[in-house]
Amino acid sequence: MKIALVGIGKIAVDQHVPAIAESPDWDLAATASRQGRVEGVESHTDIADMLAARPDVPVVSICVPPVPRYAVAEAALKAGRHVMLEKPPGATLAEVHALQALAAERGLTLFATWHSRMALGVPEAKRWLADKAVRKVRITWREDVRKWHPGQDWIFKPGGMGVFDPGINALSILTEILPEPVHLISARLEFPRNRDTPIAAELQFSGNVSAEFDWRQEGPQTWNIDIETDAGPLSLRMGGNQLFIGGERMESAETIAGEYRALYARMADLVRGGRSDVDLAPMVHVADAMTLGRRVLTDPFEF
Ligand code: NAP
Fold first, then answer.
1. CATH code for the structural domain at 116-258+286-298
2. What is residue 254's predicted lDDT score, i.e. its pLDDT?
């Protein structure tokens, strides 16, 4: 199937373009991006022009930041295209509900992707936990914003989500693998004095679940979920790509490349089956943290 990519920036180049190139399902037919290009692929600088020029491309995958994403997705759905959304699926919950309604009304597929749910250890962690009593969960997500989001000012602007941009990946795994849902009880958010979104957050949920997100970690990066159960410990490391049960390593991958291959395979299944997949549970926790969280000011941040 032909597919178009919108927003040729860091994640499109790092993951989407290689995943599409390796996929037996997809042929990258066009891009729309003000400056970004993919060598050898027809490029447009505007989504409306691309949609008008390429009625033969039935699917659009959107990699722009969350705030401009709604307008792009709405235009693609109104032009009769199936749509795949990078995470987080929008800047607000209501705009994603609106996209869901539009896709359903027009009989189109909408896939709100959560790449971390495709990490190698996640399906087995979910299967193993299904009949266990979870006693405690500790999420530690500490990374270097300058390494993963070099110069991306949008991430510190309203709707950019700040440290919840990576933190929502942990929440996407949490909401996938826990046998029972949890809800936020309290949060402490650290905002740089000169920015509109948090650089660090501590969250406490029901069910003895807690999370620490911090964007100021240099050196080794930490993306861990440690779970205590009635049958012993389970740990996910490397953002879900390494799984340990009872201290024994069960699954292991060193990169997230497999996550994007799996997302594109799932999109192909959804389009062929005429189905959508939109789960907003991770984003509900972020919205709740922004609603309930205590705000603390900290040192100014510059890239
Ligand atoms: P990015 O490189 O800053 O943005 C992607 C592209 O979107 C930009 O290069 C830009 O291309 C276009 N764009 C359109 N409107 C824009 C606007 N108002 N502000 C800024 N750029 C705009 O970001 P990214 O890292 O690829 O992230 C995009 C999405 O992927 C985010 O939702 C992020 O959460 C998700 N993601 C990122 C990573 C990561 O490691 N960076 C990992 C997984 C998922 P033109 O200038 O050519 O239009």
1. 3.30.360.10
2. 77
* pTM for this entry: 0.97
The pLDDT tens digits of the residues spanning 25-75 come to: 999 999 999 999 999 999 999 999 999 999 999 999 999 999 999 999 999
Interior angle at CA 268, CA 267 and CA 272, nearest 5: 115
User: What fold does the segment set 2-112 form as a domain?
Assistant: Rossmann fold (3.40.50)
Burial class (CB in 10 A: 0-12, 13-18, 19+), 173: buried
Region of 247 on the Ramachandran plot (φ > 0 left; ψ -120 to 50 alpha; else beta): left
Mutate to test the pocket of ligand 1, among 5, 10, 164 (most ligand atoms within 8 A of CB): 10
Spell out which residues line ligand 1, taking CB within 6 angstroms.
7-12, 33-36, 63-66, 68, 86-87, 115, 148-149, 152, 154, 165
CATH 3.40.50.720 residue ranges for the chain = 2-112
Coil, strand or helix at 135: strand
For residue 235, report the distance from its CA to the centre of ligand 1, in Å: 30
Within the chain, all domains assigned CATH 3.30.360.10 are found at 116-258+286-298
pLDDT at 174: 98
pLDDT in tens, 66-115: 999 999 999 999 999 999 999 999 999 999 999 999 999 999 999 999 99
